[in-house]
Amino acid sequence: MYLIKNHVPACKIYTPKSENEAAGCELAAYMERLTGKKPELLTSADMPGVDDALIVLDTPPFASIADALPETENLGREGYLIAQRGDNLFLLGAAEESVFYALYDILESYAGIVFMTSKDEYIPEKETVEIPDNLFDLQKPAMEYREIYYRDLWDTTFARKMRLNGQACSVGPDGRVREHHRGWGFWCHSFFALIPPAQYFDAHPEYFSL
Hints:
Blueprint: E1 2-5, E2 8-9, E3 12-14, H1 21-35, E4 41-42, E5 54-58, E6 80-85, E7 88-93, H2 96-109, E8 114-115, E9 121-122, E10 129-130, E11 136-139, H3 156-161, E12 167-171, E13 177-181, H4 191-194, H5 197-200
Parallel strand pairs: 3-4, 3-5, 5-7
Antiparallel strand pairs: 1-2, 1-10, 6-7, 6-11, 8-9, 12-13
Helix pairs in contact: 1-2
């Protein structure tokens, strides 16, 4: 199956649910940068033609077009499935974030794009991008929280391209860095949050280091 043939997108991008339209636009933008031509985008308001070759980006419950695919109930919290069947390529994610993981995987693995930093990417001009027939690639993260403690990965878009989900940092108006670790609860520097001095110091000064 061709994603790109003779410098032209060979598929339409189809997002059956509105929550995946941002991922569809992201994929379309990269295909345009690969070819100089933007693929057609079909959304939940459109009905694909019977002869359309599609890249389908979807999250549960999956559209009926994906009914014949196995393992779609086995994606876990952030897994994704890349599968080629007939004239269609399916990028199916357990959640919206996972659909982005799938599209970045395709762009890296088959289009030759390299995401180097938050500001630097290698995007070749492609005459042809071909997906193997009957491709079936199921990816499930081994770790629920994934982080590399590296300043450039404070950029959440770049972190997503690296399939990381743990860290988001921001610099406040006071110049201090604030870290946010989704779902982690406390991570470090948490003593005063757990044992507030205003509540415990007078009765238990021995709790607090000098």
